Amino acid sequence: MNLNQVTIPSLDLEKATEFYKTLGLQLIVDALPRYVRFECPDGDSTLSIHLVETLPNGNGITIYFEDDNLDTLVTQLKSKGLVFISAPEDKRWLWREAHLLDPDGNTIILYYAGKNRKNPPWRIPK
Q1: Which residues contact 10 (CB under 8 A, 6 or more apart)?
Q2: What is the pTM of this model?
Q3: Is the separation of the CB atoms in 47 and 25 below 8 Å?
Q4: pLDDT 10s digits, 6-55
Q5: Cα separation of 30 and 17, whole Å?
Q6: In the predicted model, is pLDDT for residue 87 greater than 90?
């Protein structure tokens, strides 16, 4: 089994589309004003966004994007006008993370984890 895509809701699909293009995702399906789909620049994952009238209640959605050069990426995105709610920092779970919000308030975590992404020291043995 392989994860194909994740789909998130948006109140303003045009604004969300520009945000995710700025993050570096490539638009591969443009069915504005109702739906868009992006491909990640590395790997085979995709992200879809669909238009909704209201956002779900609760804690919202958190999306993680990994980059080998996290600090450089954050500097580049800041120069493009994106605002971060936390700068890159090392976390106790052995990931380096920076946080920002998309236009709909979803949390975006840019991170680097290296081997600890899927194989932290506390991983359950196979």
Answers
A1: 16, 49, 50, 51, 52, 103, 104
A2: 0.91
A3: yes
A4: 999 999 999 999 999 999 999 999 999 999 999 999 888 999 999 999 99
A5: 9
A6: yes
Backbone angles phi, psi at 84, to 5 degrees: -100, 145
Distances (CA, A) of 78 to 21, 42, 65: 14, 21, 16
| Nearest-10 Cα torsion for 50, 81, 67, 98 | -90
Sign of CA dihedral 6, 99, 107, 50: negative
β strands within 1-126, DSSP E: 5-10, 26-31, 35-39, 46-51, 62-66, 84-90, 96-101, 107-112
Query: Helices in the chain by DSSP H: which ranges?
Result: 13-23, 70-79
